Each structure stands twice: as structure tokens, then as C-alpha cells.
Give the backbone structure.
Amino acid sequence: MNNNDDVIKDFYKILEEKGYKGKILSAEHIPDIRHDITKHHTQNRFDPEFYDNYQSFFEFKTDVDLPQIRSLFIISVPVPQFEAVFHWKNEKKSLLIPPTYLYGLNIVNQITELVNEILKPMGYKAVYARIPQKTIAVRSGLAEYGRNNITYVPGMGSFHRLTTLYSDFPTEEDNWYELKMMDLCKECSACTRKCPTQAIPTDRFLLRAERCITYHNELPPEMTFPEWFDPAWHNCLVGCLHCQKVCPANKKVINWTELGPEFSEAELSLILKGESLEELPIATKEKIVEYDLENYYEVLPRNLAVFFK
Ligand code: B12
Ligand code: SF4
Ligand code: SF4
């Protein structure tokens, strides 16, 4: 067995020990993955504004610090949803934060370090890849699509975080499959029926992203919610859990909730007022940084206003 085979063996062994899952695929597939996305663009299936907002994810920037990109490593880590607690008018109100929002950067750093430790003895490296991860996860056989367009990994449901890395590791192993929907979805449409905005279509598979609550509550703070939005649809601090909650493939994970940040009434008032992160009391700012919520801080005043009038 050559040493490159040992790298692959080590990769899978370490992932298994940690309860993670992953796949390696050849970088030769990058044009195919790009095509999986751009074909929808050329056929005008994306809302133009949505496409513009997310273009940087669809560009497959490959100007990274590697002599050559030879392979892609994609890793899935199980992650919970979090409960954020807000004190308001002498009561406590909890708002859920769906999986992947908190500690996102932590996981990316941890996975990058882990893969680099495996590759280093052989002189190879891996760096973060900003590319469409669900397509790669399904193409590599790591995950399958749900009808809700979210990816599912066996044993984790949709409660997992994907990290993709480019590497100069010349893999002999390659994983490449057709885009696949879970078998469970063939007899189920619970998510389609539950989605309040009809973002999960009945006439095609591709999500109508411009209708998704998540799209609107992740947009910059100056963007108000569309008039056709019923305030009762909001169910999370950021994101939306309707289509994951009803999904039978999530039966085992749906109650996996960990405690997130807790804010006093004074802190909540400052956030609602739109105080910048820098202007917040140090302890409040540290709380937001500790939970890796800075990237979403600016959308909180608009999103919270729905729940705390
Ligand atoms: C843009 C984006 C969004 C947009 C658009 C979502 C979308 N479905 O495209 C918005 C803002 C709406 C969004 C919402 C959410 N997102 Co998002 N999002 C992204 C982002 C930046 C790119 C995703 C992308 O490539 N979209 C483009 C479309 C074309 O790709 P696709 O969805 O894979 O579509 C494929 C299928 O439709 C397939 N297809 C087409 N026809 C057919 C037919 C059949 C039969 C089959 C099988 C397949 C198939 O082809 C398409 C191309 O391959 C990624 C980050 C990243 N780097 O990847 C996160 C990411 C995908 N999002 C993530 C999450 C967690 C969410 C939310 C669950 C957040 C929440 N609410 O809690 C929601 C889910 C909404 C939903 N139902 O999809 C996670 C994925 C988690 C997972 N388990 O899959 C990612 C990876 C980010 C992260 N934090 O880890 N997101
Ligand atoms: S709710 Fe049903 S149709 Fe939707 S993703 Fe889950 S199993 Fe598939
Ligand atoms: S995240 Fe919410 S709005 Fe978006 S598709 Fe799922 S249920 Fe619909």
C-alpha cells in the first residue's frame, strides 16, 4: 500500500472516531459541479436578485494558496439547533436558532486543521473552498437531497454542517454520483405543505429561494420583509425551521437543542435600537462573539422586532 492510500485510510478512520462523515473527490469534477449550478442560471430558473446576492458562492473562486487543486475534501459534522433566551417585560422568551448558524467558524477551523494534520506528513495542504456545498455533498455520495432542497446525511438528518476544502492531494479515490433525492421523499410532501411561503415548489425540484423566509431574514438590515409576509410565519431568530421540523428524516435529531445566548431586557433594548456591535457593552459583545453570531448581528434588530414590538 502506498502512503497516499494511508492518508485516505487515516481520513476515514479519524472522521469515524469523531462521529463525522466525509468524502474525497477529484478536482476534475469542478466544471461539472459548476455546470450543475449555472445550467439553472442559463435557463432563467433563479430569481435575478437572488442570483446577484449569492453570486460569490457560485463563482468557484480557485485563486487559493495551493500549487494545484487536485482534490476536494467534504466533511459533515453533526450540529444542534440552539435556543436563544430574551428577557422581556418580566418574562423569558425563547427563540430557536437553526443548526449551522452558531459556531460556524469554529467548525471550519477545526476541520481545516484536522485535514491538514493528516496531509502534512506527505507534504500536502488543504484550504477552505467557497463553493456550493450541497451539490458537492450529494455528488460525492455523502448526502442526499430532501424535497426541501436541504441535504441529509444518514444518522444526522439535516442537522449537520458541511465544510469543503480544496487540496493538492492527488487522490486516487474518487466519488461521483447522480444528484439524488432521499427515497423517503418519494411518498412524502410534508415540507412542501408546511412551508408557509410556497418556496418548496410542486412543479419543479429547485427551491424558489426568493420566497424562502431565510432568504429574507438573512438579507441586509435595510431590507424590510415583503408585504405579503405574514408575521406569524417567523419562527426563528434567523433562518426558519418549518420544513426541517416536520421532516420524518429528522425524527431522531429534531429535539437536539442546546442552550444559546441569553440576553437581559436592557441588552435586548440596545439590540432592538440598532446599536452597533462596537457600541454594545463589552459583556454583550463578547457573548455575541463567543457564540460566533457576529456575522448575523446586523440582521437581529429587524428580525427581533417581529417578536418584540
Ligand atoms: C444560497 C444559499 C441559501 C439560499 C438559497 C437556498 C437554496 N436552496 O439554494 C437561502 C438564503 C434561501 C438559504 C436558505 C437555507 N440555507 Co443556505 N445556503 C446557501 C449557500 C450560500 C449556497 C447554496 C447553493 O448552492 N444554492 C444554489 C442551488 C442551485 O443549489 P442547491 O440548492 O444545491 O440546488 C441543487 C438541487 O436543486 C439540484 N436539483 C435540481 N433539480 C433537481 C431534481 C432532482 C430530482 C434532484 C435530486 C436534484 C435537483 O440541482 C441544484 C444544483 O445542484 C450555501 C453555502 C455554500 N457554500 O454552499 C448555504 C447552505 C446550503 N445553507 C444551509 C442552510 C442550513 C440553510 C437553511 C436550512 C437555513 C435555515 N433556515 O435554517 C435554509 C434552507 C432553505 C431551503 N429549503 O433550502 C447549509 C446547508 C445545510 C444542509 N443540511 O444542507 C449551507 C451549506 C450553509 C451552512 N451554513 O452550512 N440558503
Ligand atoms: S418532509 Fe418529507 S418530502 Fe420533505 S424532505 Fe422530509 S422526507 Fe422529504
Ligand atoms: S426554510 Fe422555511 S421558508 Fe424556507 S423552504 Fe423551509 S419552510 Fe419554507
